[in-house]
Amino acid sequence: MVTGIVLVNVERHKLKNVVDAILKFEAVTEVYAVAGEYDLVAIIRANDNQQLSTIVADKMPHEIEGITHTKTLIALKANSKFDLEKLFNIK
Q: Is 65 exposed, middle or buried (0-12, 13-18, 19+ CB in 10 A)?
């Protein structure tokens, strides 16, 4: 499993539509509205780097109107009380 944390800036009046569109991607497990430099944080739990890349580089910027900027962080290691791969049904 590859986990991507995507920080997203959005045109304010399109916030709800952007959240709904991001949540439609299969590997997106959570979207948080946040305060600070970014408007949203999307958590992507992909099977591999290719799936993550397709969502972040191809789908989000080209299929979702209202996103103005993103920054993607890739988790190098996950520490959790839970088996995340099992919890999110990732192979």
A: exposed
